[in-house]
Description:
By secondary structure, the chain is mainly β. It contains three helices and 14 strands. The chain has helices at residues 86-97, 149-155, 196-204, and strands spanning 7-15, 21-31, 34-37, 49-50, 57-65, 68-75, 81-83, 101-107, 138-144, 164-171, 174-179, 188-190, 208-210, 223-224. The longest helix has 12 residues, at 86-97.
Amino acid sequence: MTKENSTVEIHVRLLGEGTNCSRPTRGVIVGHGVFRLLPTADYDPDDEHWEFLPGSIVRAKEVRDVEGVYLLAVEGPFKFWKVLDKRRLLLAMMEELAGDAHISFEGDLHGLALLRMPDALDEPTPALRRNTRWPKQDFIIVPLEPSMGNKIIAAIGGTVPKAIIHIQIEKNGLRQFGAYDNFHPECIYFGSAVKQAVIESLISERIIRPYTERRPKREPKRRTIS
């Protein structure tokens, strides 16, 4: 069995070559058919134009042609994410972004203990704004400091109830995480403060996975650049 975080050979299409061809390289196994592309030893972006650049998180599929079976990068980088475990994702983001940060909750917050938390606010700020105009929802902001993640989870009932529609985290005045419309796959946002290694860990731990509704096209026969 191939272990996650090991590497495998994976092919990347080359653009502008005049024919269908690919470059074999290595990819770090993130998990669940997802890989992080590594550059070849002599990678030169001015010489070859890869469909997906080194460092990209991509999905790959197994392709068979007259030369054999190989893995081909077919999709990425990803904009949409299917959340498999809301609670663990929220805990991971709070742990990653805690310190000089705040978290906001919007929805039907009646009966939750959020307002009883120290320094809780019920008005938006420039970094954390309301996202539902009508009907007007409850809105609460609480400070997010290290070791507060479990306390905040407890204050919303130990899980992420459907009554909470939007969640945002700002750090140093900039929004760095957003989960909108009940964690809709097209409404998950990771800011620059969320390191790629964290996103890879979320995938490997089955907390999120790349989301797409587009089916990959049938792969043409390819010529491999050696």
